[in-house]
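so my prof wants the structure for this chain in the tokens format not the other one, which i didnt know existed until like an hour ago. anyway here's the sequence
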Amino acid sequence: MEPGADAGSVPDAAFDARSPEYSDAAPDPEDTGRPVEDQGPPPDLGPAPRLTIGWGLGEYRPIEDGAPVELVRGPQLALHLEPAIRIENLDVVGLTLILRGSDATTGEPLTVPNNARLTPARVQIEGNRATKVGNLLLFESRCQPNIIDRRIRIEAGVGELGGAVLVSHTLEVVLVDEVMPDVDPAAFCDEDP
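here's what i got, hopefully its the right format
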């Protein structure tokens, strides 16, 4: 026994890979004794997780990078976008969806960060595919001068809250004709542009 060690305790050397105690441990049952390159291909883990950004409040509609999308001014006069998310080959229940929007040219954040916990009530699951519609990506300001024809980068990711993102996707869209209620624009532009 090492000096200062209590009876029944494990000496620190047992956790040191260079110690004889460590090297005498039972062999790894997965170790074939052959070099890694001779062990054949890795096991098939199935298709990789995939996330795509589409559009729509009630149903998922695919869109292409650079596609025109409508900027919407809702009944409370806030500007928003309506991205829909599709995730494949990943069990998303209990994970968190993270959505962000920024100016595609400058990188300036333009939207309020949107984090949504993915629950069975919020996600439509069909086989290996989960779809999340009804997302609103709100702009930080109700006044957005020169917003039409602007390129917006939308970033979406799914992962553990506060942890690593497991799958993500980025899409750039071009904002077109603002859809808005029948309201005088001065009523919502109470901020300095």
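also thought this was worth mentioning. The chain is about 0% helix and 35% strand.
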